[in-house]
Request: fold
Amino acid sequence: SVVDTLTAAVRDESSPLPHAENALHLPIAMHHGALDQSVRVEHSRRMAVRLQDLGYDVQYTEYPEVDHDVWTQAYADGRMFAWFDSYRRDPAPAKVVHVTANPRRYGRSYWVRIEALQTPHALGRITAEAHSGNRVTVRTDNVRQLSLQLDTPLLDPQRQVTIVVDGATCYTGMAPAGGWLPLQLESGDCTVRPDDATEVGPPYAGLWGALLDYHVIVYGTRGSQDVTDRYQAFAERITRTPRQLRLQLRTLADTTVTDALQTHANLVLIGTPETNTILADLAADLPIHWEDGRPAIGTLRAGDGEVLMVTYPHPRFPDRRLLVLTAGATEAIEQIRFVPRGAPEIVILGADGTIRVTGTFTRDWQVVKLP
Reply:
């Protein structure tokens, strides 16, 4: 079922293995210490085997007595630079393979773009090849919208180009102005779509998608002084990083967040509309609602002592994202120790801090509960 597909994809989304095919034109040198306690060596071993099975150019070196600081050996005597110097990048390969579950962030490879998927979170896949005679063939899996760049050295700009998608001719004509040809796949049919018909659906990067770009932590100040102080202490705690990282993450009161900041930063909003000014301002445009003080989204409801985590585009600055951490009680939020890595767009943490419910959005923004 669609839900089963979503569940499997969410579990595997943090693994690079399903994306190994993207390294078709990328020579890879992998170095890993067998004693690494930060990233298990099994990850590199599996990836090396996968790349070798694909017939790709991969060099894997494992150091039996080395922990995480493998770079000392990898760069010794400048050998890594010598390895780099032996390769030259092809800016326009005739064959492109691209796999992604997150088209918004990782949609493009060379002259091919995946822009929307048929099924969210499941991997979309394209194999595109430019042939002699100004002909391009494309094979797709779980792709709803794509674009092809036709003004490349692979094609003659003075001649018509023929595009064949999944075995059927989709387009014959000159390269469009700007070079990119946008295509729509629906029920087995391929058509050229208007430039303004690109879907703006869920970004499908899970909760961590809001944290991968520049973001600030925003605590509410609308409640009592005690609640404000507790939210501030929580925000400052979750922004602490190990001293060796030397990072300073920003923590701000809701009343200090400007429109200018919101245009270029994702916001992690802590609290409820009653305690956070920004949540109060945006509440009518968010899919979250609060029933008897407890947060809910769709049919998913957080109970007593539980926390709802949701990531959603900023209603006023859609290129930016929100991550909302909300609960009926301040002490529930104070129990959060981390944002679950690899989790989908909607998570309810139980009173014991474990994940009780997960969910995501369909491409038309309906809430789907994951089993």
